[in-house]
# Entry
Amino acid sequence: MNQFKGRQFNQAIIMVVVGYYCRFNLSYRDLVEILCDRGVSVHHTTIMRWVHHYGPIFRVLWHRHKQSASQCWQMNETYIRVKGSWCYQYRAIDNQGLTLDFSLRKYRDYQSSYHFLKRLLLDCNNKVTT
# Structure
């Protein structure tokens, strides 16, 4: 099923704009300025509708194709400050330094690390089988 059927703008423009929004910390109005520099006139609410419609689709596609280059990875934990409150960050990285997954938790206990590790192993097993 073609998700872009009936849209006023080209599929490539929509994909680039939604990709920029999801990948970089840009507002809708910043994206309007970027497109205006390239000769495309679009309103910021149109971009918002694109992000709301295509964002979940892109997330599923990126998650499906996001695979680690190797089966070797490490897990670490650190104490960081996020928006004024301290929390524990659990992070898994592969041998090339790419982040596989991360989690922010309020408490450092057995359940926090267990659930993160369980989610990571289930995700890795699903990638191997697909």
Observations:
- Strands lie at 73-82, 85-94, 99-105.
- The longest strand covers residues 73-82.
